[in-house]
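Researcher: Quick sanity check before group meeting.
Model: Go ahead. Protein one:
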Amino acid sequence: MTRFSRVLLAASLIVLVGVAGVFAGGSQESAQGGGTIIVGSNSAPRTLNPLFFPSRQDSIVTNLIFDNFVMPDEDGNIVGHLVESYDVSDDGLTYTFNLRHGVTWHDGEVFDGDDVVATFEMLGHPDYNGGMNRVSDIVGIDAYREDPSQGISGISLSDDKYTVTIQVSEPSATFLPGLYFPILPAHEIADIDLTNLEEAPFNSHPVGTGPFVFEEWAVGDSITLNANPDYFLGAPKVDGVIVKFGDQVALTSQLQTGAIDILEVDRDGYETFDGDSAFNIYSYPMLSVDYVGYRVGPGRAEDTRGELPVYSRTIRQALAYATNKDALVEAAFGVSGYPHDSVFPKGSIADSPNDNSYDYDPDRARSMIESEGYTFNNASGFYEKDGEPLSIELLYSEADGAAAAILNEQWREVGVDLQLRLLDFGALINVLLRKSDAEGDLESDGAAFNAEEAATDSPFEAYLLGFAQESDPDEYAQYFVDDDFWNFYHYENADVQRWFAEQAVTVDPDARQQILYRISEQLSEDLPWFVYAGTNEVVVTGANIGGFSPDTRGYTLNAHLWTLD
């Protein structure tokens, strides 16, 4: 499940919501003594359906409600979850999954293979448009998409419904990691109108198998969950969890006073609690990067056909050398970030040690700019060519405001006129994903627009965003290959396209890693993305919160072990 961050899982268009105010009560003790833990969040989820354009912000809550089919362990190895054990045939074409017995849905229905099959069929259904492409390798998927009434021929279920066998069309290094997603109940899927998935009642009233049961969503305020006493990994040690939405400053104050118990914090928040024995601070690297994205070639619409300075790889590389990543990360992120140089995050098997690190060298940046025919205008302080300044528009949302301001300072030092344009996060994503048809007509052109020929055709020059890898580097492929929807950079490199295809079917881990390294190294040269930082997650809890052990998979995955003393 591919993820933009700020915060967007692969393609989810999230509207960030912040509501100030204090949730009265905090750390509420119950008659049973377990208590209720209150988690602060500066953004409300967009949906509680984990199979509809899931975002990282959504997953803070959905990890409490749902269980995954399989999942990576702390070392990144795929292990079972709702799957108790699995086996892969010697030829790599048959996967056998043995499901857990004794698991029940929150409404009392029994979990079995029918739920697994229904979830896979939902993801493969021609009407499904929820951003999760995980079943394309399964035998029979094309025929199923033509006629969903026949089921997926490559999936079979044992008579007792606790063994699921899946056949794939060719050996795949990415199929198993791609099964890291939650399973939905078959009896709920049957009631979902996939043609209008965004409006499905399930999205706001979910039924899962996880450690906590959905109770209430008070829009703009909080989500309340109750402990699931029948959870198959053991009943939670607290009575419930409340996820409280609010402004970051207000939430930080509430954590200080004990009105909430857990909060992901920024640099200022870290400094607030550092050294205070009443709180515990957890800092750990996430599988995410922050980057400048460039449009590297022209599109089809009239406003995307002209020449831009950023079409030049030399200019993009010059901008990288003009960036003091150490100073940028320290000023914009503090403890929440670290300098980075690969599109693949630190800890990913694809993060090559041989990527171009673009060590800060402003003189080299100026020399590279001049090699492209620009001359420095002492009066304006900018480089020019043919009477036009070297000007680049950089789109960003509020969360990247500090980084945008620092890049503006640093790039102006080497004569680049950076034009900053602040957009709401959702508006920024809408710009990036704007569509045109083969004639260059836009969606907004109405009847002239041919939807069957639609491709993403954005007018941006550069933008700031983050990206989070969920489980496997193959999640990046759609951004850098011939993909009409996600390659909105118009990036073309035949080697990169071939390597992405090769790594997907290379089952030997060492051989696959070498292919991924080549991808990482080539992208660090071509720079459709200039990665300048990796991201640490910093979470603060009250010292009375026990059993809290977050890692790169998220901090709510093991919430059934949390305690409140």
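Researcher: Fine. The other one?
Model: Protein two, sequence then structure:
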Amino acid sequence: MTADVRKETLGFQTEAKQLLHLMIHSLYSNKEIFLRELISNASDAIDKLRFAALADPSLLEGGAELQVQVDVAKSKKLHTITISDNGIGMNRDEVIENLGTIAKSGTAAFLENLTGDQKKDSQLIGQFGVGFYSAFIVADRVEVHTRKAGEAADQGVLWESHGEAEFSIEAKPKETRGTSITLFLKKDCQDFADDWRVRSVIKKYSDHISVPVMMAKPPAPKDDDAEKPEKDAPLEYEAINAATALWTRGRTEVSDEEYKEFYKHVSHDFQDPLTWSHNKVEGKLEYTSLLYLPAKAPFDLWNREMTRGLKLYVQRTFIMDEAEQFLPMYLRFVKGVVDSNDLSLNVSREILQQDPAVESMRSALTKRVLDMLAKLAKSKGDDYAIFWKEFGQVLKEGPAEDFANKEKIAKLLRFSTTHTDVATQDQSLEDYVSRMQEKQDKIYYVVAENFNTAKHSPHLEVFRKKGIEVLLLSDRVDDWLMNHLQEFDGKRFQDVARGALDLAAESEEEKAEQEKLSKESEALVERLGKVLEAQVAEVRATSRLTDSAACLVVGDHDMGAQMRRIMEAAGQPVPESKPILEINPAHPLVRMLDEEADEDRFADLGSILFDQANLVEGGQLDDPAAYVARMNRLLLQMSKA
């Protein structure tokens, strides 16, 4: 096959240009991470070659000794550093795709999340995982010379860019497979052409890489009697890193710093993880896992198609990135590695879905993550608070997806409650149960559009009066969560805005008072029901209100208001239902309504009462103009009185 000899100058994709600019300016204070990122990419390329060579050994081209090589060079005009690997390599189309565009989904959302704050933006860039572009932090020109394994020497490709608007690409023969990246260093970054400087960075960031990272041995100390080396003698290379897969070592042999650096390698995150768990399982199944909990959520966390899953190795051989079969969707934030001795080396994603060994490993790894979270919550409450702020809403998906671990997940959930009355979700269900009143047999909660709406819900009035704690739920997932959670520690959950109020702690006197109120309000309830028959399923008197005139209640089997709003916003059909209007007969406005003889005025007052109850719940009026017109008529009547 004849190589494409054209030299083309192409423009970067718009998003790539923006990322290049941000990379150069946001990460300038942490320049040395470029070396970690490029060595990590080289290691990944070698892993991919290993895997491809299982099916086609000829891809190794007789050179099975896989390694990364780092070379530095100085002259009066140029200082360079070159990172080379003999991995899978790229062809022309792959070079354009990988180095000229950002094909990752959610790029626009990522860019929208950038703040201009260099520290915050550098963390986001790390989560996005654009390691190659970090080369331009230290270089004003970058050359990439690559050839895909299995292709002829004349199929080599040379890519070059100054990191601005354009890059060039042309054919250039390459005798060996793999990729070499040469960075022409900026004047203020020329220390990265110093052998000792580069060695220290490699030891710091890349000691855990499972392939050797080689550098030329420094010249021996001068000795007048020693034989001088030949001028063109080949350089001798030595491994700078340990070159042992970190997860294969014993836990006592790995330092915390090594664990943290390995996390950054597998996640492309710039921050340290919150915690990790390293375990070797022996017996019916044999595998090793190293699992990490990040400290920061990625910008695309709510995209359920986001990059997720563990790096899968079989018998130390890399098989695939993002093997999502080993953890459920609600744990999609977990990063790490699983290395199995039981799976086949030619395993595919389709085979993983059907393998009973994978299902067994998935169950065990899920429990391990939940145990990690329980341990973090118990021993490092501040760190768990960080975790919950970043990933709590995702964990709330768990009870619906993982029935077997519902109780474990429930213990990890955190809520706002009337006990603290603050928006911070820091109260566990165990905390709630420990504070329950003597005769209380339910866990009460209210769901609203936001925290303030929940906190000031009229449904809470009788609970505050009696000192009964209520969970204040306002996350989008909360209504869905409670539909699946149902009970905790033998106590059923009760939505205070659903169905008739049933307080086990009510006294006989209170029950008698409610019956009396209902009887005295029968005429008003019937009259109001006729006025509002198109809007409500029924009207009834209630004792749940102490300060408000009215509230809306959802029927026992009807969809909650929050879930209805979410489905409507998503364009999903929702079943028709009407709320129940409960009125407080003791409230002055309701008394005034009861005494109103003018039927038109009564209808206006009744409609306003309903609309206000709807607004308090965070709902929207079907006809705001009609509401304003009624209010204006009443105001005018009051001014004439």
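Researcher: One line on it for the slide.
Model: The chain is about 40% helix and 20% strand.
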